[in-house]
Description:
With 118 residues, this protein is mainly alpha-helical. The protein contains seven helices and two strands, in the order H-E-E-H-H-H-H-H-H. Strands 1-2 form a two-stranded antiparallel sheet.
Amino acid sequence: MVVSERIVATQVIFMGQEQKHNCWYFMKCGREPSGALVHHFGVCPASIDRRLDGAHDGKNAGRACWVVAGSFSGQKSVPCVFAKIYKDCRKCEFYILAKEEEGHAFIEAEKLIERFRI
Ligand code: SF4
């Protein structure tokens, strides 16, 4: 399934409005608070870091995970298991999805980081 098809397939129609998903829902990592794999791997910082709450309409950094838990975070050992695999979040399905969904409203990582540091 191509990304554009997944966008349609994963958008939830709720009370007549499309709801954008956070990374843990789309990637199914199980590391959101009370997620299935928290006991093994801990809570992902993207799911609890409130500094980017609302970025791209996500919960906490759920739609800006790449600057908190991924390859744009500047960490040697990134918390996101997918970021460890991809090495570059620009290759990640969720990053591609978020970028496509946001269109012109997509905030580049550098700008998110500026906001993150405020
Ligand atoms: S690989 Fe990067 S963009 Fe994908 S879910 Fe992990 S942190 Fe987010």
